[in-house]
Each structure stands twice: as C-alpha cells, then as structure tokens.
Automatic annotation (TrEMBL):
Residues 29-378 form the Aminotransferase class I/classII large domain. Its cofactor is pyridoxal 5'-phosphate. SUPFAM superfamilies: PLP-dependent transferases (SSF53383). It holds the Pfam family Aminotran_1_2. This is Methionine aminotransferase. The keyword NADP does not apply. GO terms for molecular function: transaminase activity. The keyword Transferase applies. Keywords: Aminotransferase, Pyridoxal phosphate, Transferase. It comes from Mucilaginibacter calamicampi.
Length: 383
C-alpha cells in the first residue's frame, strides 16, 4: 500500500471526544464538552419546520439566505453601532469553526506568522499549519489570563500576517477590556496585519460588562474577520450554523474559499433563524439567562474544595485543584470522571506545550438539575 504523508502528524482524537465518550461509557454527568442538555426554543423548531413545508429545501445562496444576513446586519448595528452590508460583508457559514478555518485559509500563506494566545481553542493551530503558516503562541497565565501586550510586540515581525483574538474566551471565561483594544489598535496601526476575532460567545457576557467586538471599532473592523455562532445563540450547537462579518475586500476573498468548502448552508434552518431573530429579545435575554446558571453553579461549587476562578463570559467555569492533588490535570480529570461521575476538560490540552496549571474547565450550559447533581457528586468526591 502507498504510505500517506500526514499533514497533521501530531494531531489525534481531541480531548472533547475522549471525555464525552468516557462520560457516556461510565454514565457520568458530562460537563466537559460545551453544549446544552436542554432543548432549544420550540418556536424556533416550528419556524424551521414551517420553512421546510414552505419549500425552502434547495441550495441557499452561497453567501447565505438574504433575510438572515439582513437580520445579522440589524443585530450587529443594534449591539455595536456597526453597519455591515448584507450583500457584500456578511457570510453565513457551517458553524463558527468553518468560518475560522476559511478566514485562516483566506489570508495565511506559507511561512506567514500567526499570533495566537494560549490556552487556545484547538482549531486555530491546525488550520494555520495546513496553510503552511507558522504558529507564534503566547501563553497566558492564571488567575487573570491577561494579555501582556509588551510581549506581543516582541512576537510581531515583518512576517506577521494575522492575530487571532477570542473574547469571551474559551477556556478561561475571561474577556477583553478597553485597554486591550487600545493596545491592539496601536499594535496593528500602520502594519499589514489582519485580525481574526472569534466571538462565538458574544452574548454570554456577565455583570453588565461590555463585549468589545472588533465590529465596534472601525479602525479594527477594517482589517478583521468577526466570527459568531448561532449554535451558542440558539442552544442548537448540532445545527452548525454561524457567520463571518468582514469588510467587502476580505469577504470577497473569504467567499472564494467558502464556496469550495461548503458552498452554502442548509436553507430551511437559515430561513427559520431569520424569522426567529425578528424578536430581538432572543439575544438580548441571553446574558441574564446564562448569568443565572453561572451564579447557581458557582454557589454550588463553593461547597467543594475547588478554588474557583472568575467567569466573566462564555458558559465555562474554571476550577483549581493543585492545593488538593499533585496529579496532572489530565489524570485528575480522568479519575474524577471515573470516581465522581462528573466529566470536565483539563486546560493543559489548550496549550501547545501542555502547560499544566492544575486547572480544569466545567461547562454550565446545563439544566439546573444537571448542575445540582454534578455539584452533589463533587462534594462527595474523595480527593
């Protein structure tokens, strides 16, 4: 047989697949992978069903159903004061990950350098490497995981093509601040550097904080791909629908690649989503919905021996256990799944070098009953 040369030789099964499979095998409560265990809106399901009955079952336009793009433009202007042209600056994608992959493909050429901040979502680096790019990672450290912009400046070279930002951040649940925006703006000004802003948790931000979307800042928006996800917005991660906002000159190149990856996203779901978004409350109510879950979960976890880090955004909660055990976070997570019956994610997997701060990640996008049962098991967990 002919031997295949792997383009990603160091990539194997993701930790998300591993932990979810183990949770299923053992009947553990799965707080590892980021998806809800409650249903999405019955109204949304009915709208999608009706769209199918109305005949929206053939190819959608390559850029997305126009009514959905118009609703995205309306939402973006309401939230951030930014006007994006639905025709030339908004593209509906098969989830946020596809949008991220396509954006990286659009601007990264062989030997181009891309700056990422670790811990980082695991789809960034492989896409960069597939394009022949060079990953320049900067490690963020607990407890605050703030970006040291002085160090970022040292990473920038004449080969730097792209900086990937993620806020609210997975897995740390931190957010960007105005100081970060000011520093980023100064850093890229006068340089041919693009920004990929992963904002799939844009609506999951708490305590009245501001989401500093790149769309909010014209100087940054003109060089940015802004990626969002309807999976997070509508509690329907399995539908895999997202979108990318970018100025027309970037969108034109983005779509050249998008059309050969998926061409278009299923039309009935897009149509149903467009009609559902006519009610602005479906996204304006999300911060309070998830903040209630965060607060409830944190109150419960406070009865355990874990040391909790702040959760400013996303639907994740980090917990330190280093004062309780010397185990690696991977070993600790596996043991906790087996012995306590609660699955989590070790944060070392989000670092290229496997940096282990003895911190684990829980997902609280779950029913209150699920969270309560998980907390009770963790209280009883013998460390």
């Amino acid at each position: 047989m002919t031997t295949i040369t792997s383009k990603l030789p160091s990539v194997g099964t993701t930790i998300f697949t591993t932990m979810s499979a183990l949770a299923t095998e053992l009947g553990a409560i799965n707080l590892s992978q980021g998806f809800p265990d409650y249903e999405c809106s019955p109204e949304l399901i009915e709208l999608v069903n009706q769209a199918m009955k109305d005949g929206h079952n053939q190819y959608a336009p390559m850029g997305g159903v126009m009514k959905l793009r118009e609703q995205i433009a309306r939402k973006t202007e309401r939230l951030y004061g930014a006007k994006y042209d639905p025709v030339s600056e908004i593209t509906v994608t098969a989830g946020g990950t596809q949008a991220i992959f396509t954006a990286i493909c659009t601007v990264v050429n062989p030997n181009d350098e891309v700056i990422i901040f670790e811990p980082a979502f695991d789809c960034y680096a492989p896409a960069i490497k597939l394009m022949g790019g060079v990953v320049k990672s900067m490690e963020l450290r607990p407890p605050d995981y703030r970006i040291d912009w002085g160090m970022v400046k040292k990473l920038v070279s004449n080969r730097t093509k792209l900086i990937i930002i993620n806020s609210p951040h997975n897995p740390t649940a931190t957010i960007l601040h105005q100081e970060d925006i000011d520093q980023l703006t100064a850093l890229v000004r006068g340089r041919d550097i693009y920004i990929l802003s992963d904002e799939v948790y844009e609506h999951l931000i708490y305590d009245g904080a501001t989401h500093h979307s790149m769309a909010r800042y014209p100087e940054l928006a003109q060089r940015s791909f802004v990626v969002a996800s309807f999976g997070k917005l509508f509690h329907a991660t399995g539908w895999k629908v997202g979108y990318c906002l970018a100025p027309a000159y970037l969108t034109a190149e983005f779509r050249k690649i998008h059309q050969y990856i998926v061409f278009s996203v299923n039309s009935a779901v897009q149509t149903g989503m467009a009609n559902y978004l006519e009610d602005e409350n479906v996204y304006l109510s999300l911060p309070s919905f998830f903040q209630q879950k965060r607060d409830h979960f944190v109150k419960g976890l406070s009865q355990t021996k874990f040391e909790l880090l702040p959760s400013y955004g996303s639907y994740f909660q980090l917990a330190k256990y280093g004062h309780l055990s010397n185990e690696s976070d991977v070993d600790f997570s596996l043991r906790m799944t087996r012995e306590a019956g609660v699955a989590c994610i070790p944060t070392s997997v989000f670092y290229t070098q496997g940096t282990d701060h003895r911190i684990i990640r829980f997902c609280f996008a779950k029913k209150q009953e699920t969270l309560d049962n998980a907390v009770n098991r963790l209280i009883d967990f013998k460390l």
